[in-house]
């Protein structure tokens, strides 16, 4: 089958393209922004990319167009597809029909931690020699790629297990259900639930409704692994649940008790399962680990082996990824773009480095951030930083200065990258820990700042 993917350079659609190509399909695609690293990853797999959405692409005559949720009505190629009655489907629907139907799907949902938890779970199954397939919204450093089919060489067959990051964002312009309702998992992790994606959800209740649609399709012989501390998830499950539940973060379920030197004692139903020594910081990562351990146990992996696997877990690129150490200045790249994620990232770093100075660099880039939904919570989320630089590029529809005024002389707002990089390099001194937080490319700031610090 020849499929042509609209919006192919997105994290999800790019991963889907790799999976389709590995399955033997001919894959082409287009996007408005064809750029590395996804463009490089796709071209390395001999997937032809086209810049833009011109209607002439219908002359490629694929068997099917697969539509990403970045595509809207008015898109020239989409309009041509509709006008000529050509076959099309969404990415999640194609994935469900062609790759997930006969697999044991382990889906990781939640506002925060989906990518890291998915990577942990995939790595545990890999360490247990189960060779899982996966589609993750980031690049796990243990694997070096964001998606694979999963193949067991000695059995000459695909692994039955497939780990997927289960996003609540909408499926496509013609299917406003959340992506995750297509995946039909046997094992589901519910990490946490807060208001997000204000561009598509009017309120938290609307997101809860989608999460309950997800809960409704998990079978009786499956398992729901849920955050026992999260009141919103409890409310979702109270609306109806037909599947066994295991909780984490509570005494009656899975717990991680900090010991010393990054060591955690892991308990299940108050019985010690083992101790985990690793490099990841913060309570949020401890919670992610508990979720992954519970899900892996459901798939048949002994908890002792799962704990051993996590000692070798290398995290995901752009999740507190240490980019470099220059003159004893540590520079990290982090994906945090929601106040909760910003706060947990900085709190985890503070616990690790103690009184050493932390400098936060923030790009308020997500659609929800640009709408100003979190402006009242933003300053509080940055309290653990000794100094914050915030980038305001003119696309923000609210007054950042007023929102961050309570930070006093600990905040600088810049309207150009050049001025901000100059200010950061003047401030930086040996011993600093600098955290760059954005869910996008930040205009190449990472490499520009590293170059400036080296100079």
Automatic annotation (TrEMBL):
Gene3D superfamilies per UniProt: Mur ligase, C-terminal domain, Mur-like, catalytic domain, NAD(P)-binding Rossmann-like Domain
Pathway the protein takes part in: Cell wall biogenesis; peptidoglycan recycling
Keyword Cytoplasm annotated: no
Catalytic activity: UDP-N-acetyl-alpha-D-muramate + L-alanyl-gamma-D-glutamyl-meso-2,6-diaminopimelate + ATP = UDP-N-acetyl-alpha-D-muramoyl-L-alanyl-gamma-D-glutamyl-meso-2,6-diaminopimelate + ADP + phosphate + H(+)
EC number: 6.3.2.45
GO molecular function: ATP binding; UDP-N-acetylmuramate-L-alanyl-gamma-D-glutamyl-meso-2,6-diaminoheptanedioate ligase activity
Mur ligase C-terminal domain sequence ranges: 318-440
Annotated ranges, domain Mur ligase N-terminal catalytic: 2-101
Gene Ontology BP terms: cell division; cell wall organization; peptidoglycan biosynthetic process; peptidoglycan turnover; regulation of cell shape
NCBIfam families in alphabetical order: mpl
The family this protein is said to belong to: Belongs to the MurCDEF family. Mpl subfamily.
Job of this protein: Reutilizes the intact tripeptide L-alanyl-gamma-D-glutamyl-meso-diaminopimelate by linking it to UDP-N-acetylmuramate.
Protein name: UDP-N-acetylmuramate--L-alanyl-gamma-D-glutamyl-meso-2,6-diaminoheptandioate ligase
Source organism of this protein record: Nitrosomonas stercoris
């Amino acid at each position: 089958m020849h499929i042509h993917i609209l919006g192919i350079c997105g994290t999800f659609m790019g991963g889907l393209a790799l999976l389709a190509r590995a399955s033997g399909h001919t894959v082409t695609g287009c996007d408005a922004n064809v750029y590395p690293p996804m463009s490089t990853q796709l071209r390395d797999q001999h997937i032809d990319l086209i810049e833009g959405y011109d209607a002439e692409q219908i002359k490629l005559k694929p068997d099917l167009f697969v539509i990403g949720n970045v595509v809207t009505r008015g898109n020239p190629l989409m309009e041509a597809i509709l006008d000529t009655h050509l076959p099309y489907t969404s990415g999640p629907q194609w994935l469900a029909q062609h790759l997930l139907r006969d697999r044991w799907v382990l889906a990781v949902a939640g506002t925060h931690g989906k990518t890291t938890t998915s990577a942990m779970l995939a790595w545990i199954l890999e360490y247990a020699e189960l060779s899982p397939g996966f589609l993750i919204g980031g690049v796990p450093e243990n694997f070096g790629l964001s998606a694979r089919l999963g193949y067991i060489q000695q059995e000459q067959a695909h692994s039955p297990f497939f780990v997927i990051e289960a996003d609540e964002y909408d499926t496509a312009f013609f299917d406003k259900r959340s992506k995750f309702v297509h995946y039909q998992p046997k094992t589901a992790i519910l990490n946490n639930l807060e208001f997000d994606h204000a561009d598509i959800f009017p309120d938290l209740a609307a997101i809860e409704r989608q999460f309950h649609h997800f809960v409704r399709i998990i079978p009786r012989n499956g398992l729901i692994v849920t955050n026992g501390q999260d009141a919103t998830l409890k409310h979702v499950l109270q609306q109806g649940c037909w599947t066994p539940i295991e909780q984490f973060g509570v005494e009656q379920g899975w717990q991680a008790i900090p010991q010393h030197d990054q060591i955690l004692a892991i308990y299940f139903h108050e019985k010690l399962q083992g101790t985990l020594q690793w490099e990841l910081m913060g309570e949020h990562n401890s919670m992610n680990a508990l979720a992954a351990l519970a899900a892996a146990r459901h798939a048949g992996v002994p908890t002792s082996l799962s704990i051993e696997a996590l000692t070798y877990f290398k995290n995901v690129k752009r999740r507190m990824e240490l980019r470099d150490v220059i003159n004893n200045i540590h520079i990290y790249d982090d994906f945090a773009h929601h106040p909760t994620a910003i706060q947990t990232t900085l709190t985890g770093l503070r616990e690790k480095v103690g009184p050493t100075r932390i400098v936060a660099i923030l790009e308020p880039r997500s659609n929800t951030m640009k709408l100003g939904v979190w402006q009242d919570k933003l300053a509080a989320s940055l309290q653990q930083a000794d100094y914050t630089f915030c980038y305001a590029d003119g696309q923000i529809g609210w007054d950042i200065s007023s929102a961050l005024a309570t930070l006093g002389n600990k905040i600088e707002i810049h309207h150009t990258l050049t001025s901000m990089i100059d200010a950061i390099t003047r401030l930086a001194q040996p011993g600093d820990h600098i955290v760059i937080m954005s869910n996008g490319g930040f205009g190449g700031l990472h490499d520009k700042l590293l170059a400036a610090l080296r100079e």
